[in-house]
Amino acid sequence: MTPEDEVLTACAVALAERDVVTDPDILGSYLRDRSTGSAAGVPFAVVFPRSTDQVAAVMSAAHRHRVPVVPRGAGSGLSGGSNAIDGSLIVCLERMRSVLLVNEVDGYVETQPGVLNTELREHVRGHGLWYAPDPASKDFCSIGGNVNTNAGGLCCVKYGVTREAVLGLEVVLADGRVTRLGRRTIKGVAGYDLAGLMVGSEGTLGIVTMARLRLRPMPPPPTTSVAVFGDVGTAGRAVSAIMAELTPSMLELMDQQTIAAVEAWQPMGLDVTTAALLVAQTDAPHGAAAADADRLLQICEDHGALECHRSDDPAESDLLLGARRLAIPAMEALGDWLLDDVGVPRSRLAEAMVRFQDIAARRDVRICTFGHAGDGNLHPTIITPRGDREAGARALLAFDDILDVALDMGGTVTGEHGIGTLKRRALARELDAPAIDLHSRIKQAWDPEGILNPGKALPRW
Fold first, then answer.
1. Does residue 113 sit within a domain?
2. What is the pLDDT of residue 197?
3. Is the domain of 119 the same as that of 180?
4. How many domains does one find in the chain?
5. Domain range for residue 268?
6. Are 138 and 233 in the same domain?
7. In this structure, are residues 78 and 331 in contact, taking their beta carbons and an 8 Å threshold?
8. CA 300, CA 259: separation in Å to the nearest integer?
9. Which of 32, 72, 153, 271 could be stapled to 135 by a disulfide with Cβ–Cβ 3.0 to 4.6 Å?
10. Is 305 found in the same domain as 229?
11. In angstroms, rounded to a whole number, what is the distance separating the alpha carbons of residues 23 and 44?
């Protein structure tokens, strides 16, 4: 038998028949994630384990026969990290959907990786607790994927990204061994931070089968504020001034191109001549949220805002946030889209946005920039006419130009979406030679046969 047949036989023994799929028509649904511009190969099968023991059995067989494995969650990634490669086995964790434990006293939850972010948040809300990380894709992204990409979100400016929420992990290693990493306590420095190393590793070091995540008390109802600016420079300077004085729970920015895209897709009465729109939330306790919002808007006015508004009403707040949350679907409606994800120092936010528009003009593409202004994480999204191959080629060049701008400013080529397949060359430019060597040695130590998500996440020249 071929190595693939040997692995399928082992999977058939360990898993239920319906959880081992080789039908090409079904496999087609598991070839790629949500990213555009990323290559995908053809797997020989996809399996759907429901327990850690089943994942361990699958990995043991794959390791024994040196068959490449691509771990996959909900497929909502934006960098090609869960795209299939030729001859691979897709290990999809979407059926591992149980919340295992909520510890109200110590403030953590233990969950399988297939649970969606929103599902987990709603589950712990029933215990009067809150899970903070909130990616824009929270309604359809899984906790396992959040861990593997170190997902951020709108609230991360105050409450941190996924790594800050991870206390411990259960991980199936490349050879099928199972280990528990991390701790249950708030503090702990015993040994290297292997759980932290797993977070953001994009399935290249192991497969997460349980995540122990920190919970918080429910925050007070937020106050939402909106400021309108006549140019991105004043908006950028306002962001720097706000973050020097306050810690909003959300601080989002959209440029004119993004505003126009949202208004065209779903009219909301937005002024499409507005150069930049800043949307913020404050949630300080004991009524201080409104005072913080007032101060935030005063800073905006001091830095040239044309119009300011705040609201404590939940329904009105949802309306004000609606434009920001509609950004990606609005861009999808415009044509072919290629979403970038970079981080720059907040002090250079405005400069970056201006340079992105210079790239748009030079490459003859449309670039809509929005993102998490409070931590300098921007998502310039390149739009081209649907099906236009020449424009698509220019979009890829613009994509790399944007990465060059981020690096030139002392930033990073990915703030929260990960490296996947799209940014491996850019990562090699960001890291120095000793760091690249360490990445290679860590991969070798965890996955000596190189079977876990090969061709992803690591630097490439």
1. yes
2. 97
3. yes
4. 4
5. 220-327
6. no
7. no
8. 19
9. 153
10. yes
11. 9
Place of tokens 């934006």: 78
Compute the distance between CA of residue 253 and CA of residue 94 in angstroms, rounded to an integer.
33
pLDDT tens per residue across span 120-173:
999 999 999 999 999 988 999 999 999 999 998 888 999 999 999 999 999 999
CATH code where residue 224 lies: 3.30.70.2190
Does 224 lie in the same domain as 209? no
| Domain co-membership, 212 together with 224 | no
Burial class for 176, CB neighbours closer than 10 Å (0-12, 13-18, 19+):
middle
- Does one domain contain both 41 and 140? no
**Contact present, 407 and 401 (Cβ < 8 Å):** no
The answer to whether position 451 is within a domain reads no
Return the pLDDT at 461.
66
pLDDT tens-place string over residues 290-325: 999 999 999 999 999 999 999 878 777 777 788 888
| Strand residues in 139-206 grouped as ranges (E) | 166-172, 178-182
Contacts with 358 (C-beta within 8 Å, 6 or more apart), sequence order: none
Residues of the chain with pLDDT under 50: none
Classify residue 454: in a domain, yes or no.
no
**The token pair that represents 248 in the structure block:** 């909003």
The last residue of one of the domains, among 92, 110, 143, is: 92
- Secondary structure of 75-135 in HEC code, one letter for each residue: CCCCCCCCCCCCCCEEEECCCCCCEEEEECCCCEEEECCCCEHHHHHHHHHCCCEECCCCC
CA distances from 356 to 324, 360, 365, 382, 415 (A): 19, 6, 11, 10, 16
Asked if 82 contacts 71 with a C-beta cutoff of 8 angstroms, the reply is yes
pLDDT at 313: 80
Residues 311, 345 share a domain: no
Tokens standing for 282?
């404050």
Single residue among 379, 396, 417 that ends a domain in this structure = 417
Residues 264 and 208 in one domain: no
Domain-embedded: residue 298: yes
pLDDT at 319: 75
- CA 12 to centroid of chain Cα atoms: 33
- Quote the CA–CA distance of 424 and 81 in Å, as a whole number: 11
Q: Is 206 exposed, middle or buried (0-12, 13-18, 19+ CB in 10 A)?
A: buried
Contact 7, 67 (CB under 8 A): yes
